[in-house]
Design a protein that fits this description.
Layout: H1 2-16, E1 22-25, E2 41-42, E3 49-50, E4 54-55, E5 62-83, E6 86-106, E7 114-122, E8 125-133, H2 139-155
Parallel strand pairs: 3-8
Antiparallel strand pairs: 1-2, 1-5, 4-5, 5-6, 5-7, 7-8
Amino acid sequence: MKRVLLFCLLAIPSWANSLGPTFALQQPLGVAPNFTNSSNVVLGQGVPLLVPTLVTHYEPGNYLAFASVLNNATGKLSLTLTIAGVTYTTGAVVNGVDSCIDSFALPRTFYHPTDGVLTVSFGGETERYAFRFVDPVPEPATWLLLWTGLLPLLRRKPR
């Protein structure tokens, strides 16, 4: 009995502030971001291709959001995203929460798959996750290309 009690006293504090899995929130268009969406991607299993979590037409950027499972933890969470040679940092001080969602505002310049690394630090643990990111092709450019090709056909005079 003393061994079990000693094990619990030594082991439980190490689990209390442990970093659980980290997800990339990948939402279908028109769906509000949430933690339980089935299209979320667990990081650390290969190198996934990610798309923006939220595409805004009102701001000059796209958002890429990540959720970290913290197991009812307390401490300082730090996320660092490095993509195309640029580093973005965000974080939060958490107090007894199960999960934390952080997002990064990225410029709309990643029209080809670009390698990135997310570093998550919490409670003395640091995890690095590799991924690839691609932005959707802008819609106005697609229409411009289509009409540029169709215009000569419409201007052609019948004989």
